[in-house]
Write a structure and sequence with these properties.
The chain has about 70 residues and is mostly helical. It has one domain (about 5-60). The protein has helices spanning about 5-10, 10-40, 45-50, 55-60. The protein is elongated.
């Protein structure tokens, strides 16, 4: 596990790597949760509301290979 000092280090290279790692983790978690929500029958509007984005933005980012015509 990364040490908290990795995120507060005065060296920008270390700090920026930590920011990137956190962003990558957030993206993976979002993708997993959206997939789970869709498996449970959530609409794109419900997902968008939970993420604080538009329905179109949520679908564009996560809709991927889903069949056309789904909500």
């Amino acid at each position: 596990m990364a040490d908290l000092t990795d995120t507060t280090d005065r060296d920008p290279a270390i700090g920026l790597r930590a920011v990137r790692a956190l962003g990558d983790l957030a993206e993976r978690l979002e993708r997993l949760q959206v997939e789970r929500a869709r498996e449970l029958g959530w609409s794109w509007q419900q997902i968008a509301d939970a993420l604080g984005v538009s329905r179109q933005a949520a679908h564009k980012k996560h809709g991927g290979s889903e069949r056309r015509g789904e909500d």
